[in-house]
Protein 1
Amino acid sequence: MNMLKSAFITLLVLTTGVLAANAEIPEMVSFQGFLADSNGTAVEDGNYILTFSLWDGASDETDNKLWEETQVVPVQRGIYSVDLGSAESFPNTWNCLRQCSTRLYLWCSCGVYV
């Protein structure tokens, strides 16, 4: 009985490891930020058009944009919260990025106050 119990636990651990290794990349990623003017003061409350993009490097001149989406985002006391990937799905290349340990850079630009 103990050998059967031990074999079951081993199988359970191996199965869990395989399932974890094949886990899906999330479809959306929650992100919170603080929107401020050039003096560091929180912007006026309201809705803002924000564009988010992911890059494979820190320079928008020499590196590649991998993904981009624009959202109308409510901002209160400068604080906002978004679900990245809700307006534009992430590309199917995430598995490669996860396996390659590639560092990604998130850029956020603010459009007009709506």
Protein 2
Amino acid sequence: MSREMMAPIDPHPLTRELRIMPANAIPASPHTEPALIDIQWVADRLGCSTRHVARLAKDGRMPSAVKLGRLCKWPREVIEAWIATGCPPVAAPASATPTKN
């Protein structure tokens, strides 16, 4: 059988259907990112290590996390707003609070 007589094989049979679908046929999800984010997401956004994020949280220099069992998660909107305002400290660290004598 010659090469001209063989029908081309489409490696992805669904690509034909997807190519002819209009762009607005697939609804865009309004929530592409999770509502609660983990330490790795925060570290990626800040451009630092997860250990540094843990230190920031421990020292009260970032919004507090929500504990879910052993996990620490942050509300995405709170962290994005905190980053947008320049990452100001949210509370004084516990060790820096003056004590009465």
Protein 3
Amino acid sequence: MACRLGIASQPSKFATEGKKVIWAVSFLDGPPRSWAQPLINAYLLDPESPPPQELASFDVLADALRALFGDPNLERNAVAALWSNARATQNFTWDVKFNKTENSLP
């Protein structure tokens, strides 16, 4: 998400897919960076040749990373899902209590 916002906020800086991809790869760390480094090296050594398939566009890169390494925001998304479920349970509990009270009125 942060890369998409950065790219969207400066469209003139990222006029080509290649610039978007190289900028996004600069933020990778650990195993994703180890996976991308040989691809970037090959691309940068011969910029006249077409990029490797995984670097064809920012969206293709993001999809490849997600497929290989999973959700980059796993913890945040899990916490959000838990909070969402907790709110749904609270709403359901309130509805049950309200309906009991409403049904018990003369």
